[in-house]
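Practice problem: predict the structure.
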Amino acid sequence: MDRYHVLECIGEGSFGKVYKGRKKYTGQVVALKFIPKVGRPEKELRNLRREIEIMQHLHHPNIIEMLDSFETPKEVVAVTEYAEGELFQILEDDGNLPEEQVQSIASQLISALYYLHAHRILHRDMKPQNILLGKGGVVKLCDFGFARAMSINTLVLTSIKGTPLYMSPELVEEKPYDHNADLWALGCILYELFVGQPPFYTNSIFQLVSLIIKDPVKWPKNMSPEFKNFLQGLLVKDPKKRLTWPALLHHPFVK
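Answer:
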């Protein structure tokens, strides 16, 4: 802790508390994630340390940079770049976004996910809370490594209000999954940004699972044909038929 001043608490994620901080002797503002060791199995902590190490080697303009990490007797502390805004907050305040703004966010998230998937890294916990906004509207994806270190059961329990709104059919059915599960989640997030709520939405977890597996998506009338076609490619129940790389990069909606 002797390298950082800890300022105010700026959030609480499924992994612990997040504080705004400043690197000593510099003006560099950072985010410090304090992940408690207590109550975590040794295997999970080992995974976490490995993930942090992997994240320190990833560099992409749309991914939150992992700058440093250290441990105290009670916590693993991850130091990342600090991003001012949260996509989740914009949804809470404004309800939804105009399509051209969703398009800009989509292009940036596609770029970030392509980079992660090309490095054989799955996110597994894509949701608006894990998308931050930097200066000038730059979108930053965060928390992917932490999500990989947790078991799927932990993720379901820690997802918003315990409802896995962005989880793909194969994940909720506990079938084998790959990077296509992230692409389903991306479709859900972009749909929510435009419509104001995810494509499958209910407070009952059992009902939600059933909707995700069986229900067709309801398409709003004011969505452009390109956007609708793009989401129709992502929100396919069968992961093998989902729009994926490299075709995804060349879709007219994000080109």
